[in-house]
Amino acid sequence: MPQKVKAVVAKAKDAPVSIETIVIPDPGPGEAVVDILTCGVCHTDLHYVQGGIGDNYPYLLGHEATGTVSAIGAGVTDVAVGDKVILNWRAVCGECRACKKGQLQYCFNTHNAAQKMTLEDGTELDPALGIGAFAEKTLVAAGQCTKVEGVSEEQNAAAGLLGCGIMAGIGAAINTGEAKRGESVAVIGCGGVGTAAIAGARLAGATTIIAVDLDQRKLDKALELGATHTVNSKEQDAVEAIQALTGGFGADLVIDAVGRPETYKQAFYARDLAGRVVLVGVPTPEMTLELPLLDVFGRGGSLKSSWYGDTLPSRDFQMLIDQYNLGRLDLDAFVTETISLEDIDAAFEKMHSGDVLRSVVVL
Predict the structure, then answer these.
(1) Which domains, ranges and CATH numbers included, belong to the chain?
(2) Beta pairing, strands 208-213 & 137-141
């Protein structure tokens, strides 16, 4: 029987979000209903509100979530009722050309629930990243549920952040950038994703980890999460400072967690010869980049983009939970505050002003 629950909905561009009653249908084949426990407030949710992703309002917001599976549809075998899960937006299809090449982390045909959740009047909702987890319950494709073990009630808020931003940053360092023991890594932009990339570089064994930002508060936090050096690019030239901290050569790996032409050029010129650049910050559609092609050729190495940290949830989520429980990855440090559904507009303001790494809704 369909269920009615409270949820946070964006009804129009740049309008305040509202708490609405929504209808959750029974799960169909390959689908699951998840009772949400926690959900992080991510920049992507704000982009939905601002119209930066599309104009298919109303949107059901929220996607960095932990929950418990409460119902499954026909044919679902990977999760069962009662399983604790972290939701993901990469439900791999297993059939596209990337999957057939064994590169499931690049799946080009990830899928969501076939049915739509609605407002009480029947208006269909577009769930953020196919999840929509600022809600007491949500309907997703079963492949969007990644079962995890060893997560206590107190750890739910931190664990759920692996569903998007924190995983994107850690994955940019470990999966895309392939950070190695003893290497130097510089991260430009120390919001949630960039700070997670620093934590990922530390986890990978990098020995020189340089945090670059304009905000001293973010640099101080980066030191807590694993940075060995900081560069305030309001006061220093970032490229020169990174080179000075790496013997004059530049870093083995530079991660651009901002996604602007200016920061990408900094990353490009701050790497060592044959070094790697990873773009994980998301540019806006109008941005363009101009680089001398001879410099691209002459510096060698690789220039990569990181989609969701090149993450394969079934491989990465439990591994990182295990690192968390071993004390090697401080996910708790990313949770600045816990809030209720009614506090989300205020959380967007704090995020925009740089006052938080993550606000997390606890239901």
Answers:
(1) 3-163+330-362 (3.90.180.10), 170-307 (3.40.50.720)
(2) unpaired
Considering the entire predicted model, what is its pTM? Answer: 0.94
pLDDT tens for each residue of 101-111: 999 999 999 88
134 has which bridge partners?
none
Tokens read off for 64: 């960095």
Q: What's the rounded Cα separation, in Å, for the pair 46 and 122?
A: 25
What tokens were used for 246?
């790496």
Residue 180's identity, in one-letter code, is: K
pLDDT tens-digit map of 308-332: 999 999 999 999 999 999 999 999 9
Residue 361 CA to residue 363 CA, distance in Å, equals: 6
Neighbouring C-beta atoms of residue 64, cutoff 10 Å = 33
Taking the C-alpha atoms of residue 67 and residue 348, their distance in angstroms, rounded to an integer, is: 22
Which backbone phi and psi does 66 adopt, to 5 degrees?
-110, 155
